Write the structure tokens for this entry.
Amino acid sequence: MPAKPTLLLDVTRGPLFEQRNVNAPAGLKTPGVYNLALFWESGKSRRGVLTVDIAPRFSFFRSRKPYGSLLEWAGDQPDLFMKSFSRTIESWWSQAHPILPSRRNSWFDEINVVFAVVPWTTTPLVTETRWSVTVTKVDPVDYTKGFEGKVSKVSIDRAGADLEVTLYSRDLDPIVRDRIVRGVSTKFEQRPVLHEFGHIIGLRDEYPGGRARNPNWPEDLESVMFSGEKIRERHYAPFAHWLTRQFASLSLSGIGDGSVVWKVRGRTDLNNALL
Ligand SMILES: [Zn+2]
């Protein structure tokens, strides 16, 4: 996959809209999950960049191998894991689809989505987002053989406590699964962190049998919420929804030239995303 161009923000103009602790509106309806801000792209007067910020707090745990020896996190490994976690999610989840307006308007012809994941391990002065990520060290070989019960997951406590993400040290490496597609055994690869990030932003599992499952996409095995890594238009629909609401509030205040509906690639929003 070719590298995506880096989109620079025009910070001199500041964000047109900004909201902290936005609730994911669809699927899992995660409370206060991310911060959103819409900027102009540097040097492109008609292009916007929507930034999706998340600042998860990481804790690292050692574990015991099945035959008793301890698996420890050595030296800089936690730091490398966090850096790789951010890089993997930011590069894969960003700029998958442009969000386009329903009509020519005073502001933008196109808005691209960029994720910023900023992990931390110590208590900051201000706690902005409530994600708490634990990563347990596992032996990649044991794990591949079927480390029973060691399933990465995202738990959402609606009572308002921290949102918990349970990961294992091998979750940056792809899991290969065999699935039968039209009678043919087909291999699908997926890096678990990419899938779990989908839950973090409020998406449900699309494969059969998940606890909080989206039943609408039973054939889409390549989807990142199924067995693959494809980011679908529907996965961006919550962001298009947020943009439509922000522009509607501008329009209500008499700023600009009326309301604009934003859709992913001009076709997908929460009305047809089936999240
Ligand atoms: Zn899942």
Q: What stands out?
A: The radius of gyration is 20 Å. The mean pLDDT is 88.
